[in-house]
Amino acid sequence: MPRDGEPHTVGGNRHEGTPVFTRFLLPASLILAGCDTLPIAPLLSTEDPVCDDGGGIPLSKANLDHGVIALASLPFAAAIAPPIQADGSSVFQIASTIPFKIRVIACTPDGDPNSLTPTFSLVRVGSDGSSDDPITQLESSSAADEGNTLRSAGEGQYLFNFSTKKSGFSSSSGLTSGLYRLTISAGGNFADVVVEFRLRKS
User: Fold this and answer.
1) Which of 2, 65, 86, 190 gets the highest tally of CB atoms within 10 A of its CB?
2) Is residue 60 within 8 Å of 51, Cβ to Cβ?
3) Is residue 37 helix, strand or coil?
4) Closest C-alpha among 108, 99, 195, 110 to residue 153
5) pLDDT tens column, 98-127
6) What is the pLDDT of residues 16-32, one digit of tens each?
7) CATH architecture assignment, domain 80-200
């Protein structure tokens, strides 16, 4: 096992710096020959948070639950949750409320998935795909939401009730039909969650 600051190899890839080790008790039937031979449990659905080792090896919650030693590159993993679909197929009507939801899991033993303050940004994707229009007036339909911060709903879930009726490109310019890109981040605690959806007139 590499020491702090020493290069280490995961999945055939060489990494510099200090790895983040996640240690779990292993069943007697599991024998690990080294970091390059981690047994990988089947991945959960594309909407499940997945811890990643930074070298191409996915470390799903199934891995963690089955006692696999994980080399996580970030302390948490997050994924979009319904009603927005991860494949970008979601379509909502203008004037509706869209719950922005994510689910977060800890990739280290002492991580608390309910301790984060994720924020979001939203842009309308240009018709040519090269220019984006930022949504600067971000409003919620719930008094429980503030600014552009998703609030914790417990058990690693975060929520913001986005009002398409109140929000807009400015205080005097409302949202229009088109393709939108949502980005949810948490200061580097997990990889940005990026998903697209469409708005249309009712």
Assistant:
1) 190
2) yes
3) helix
4) 99
5) 999 999 999 888 899 999 999 999 999 987
6) 554 444 433 333 332 22
7) Sandwich (2.60)
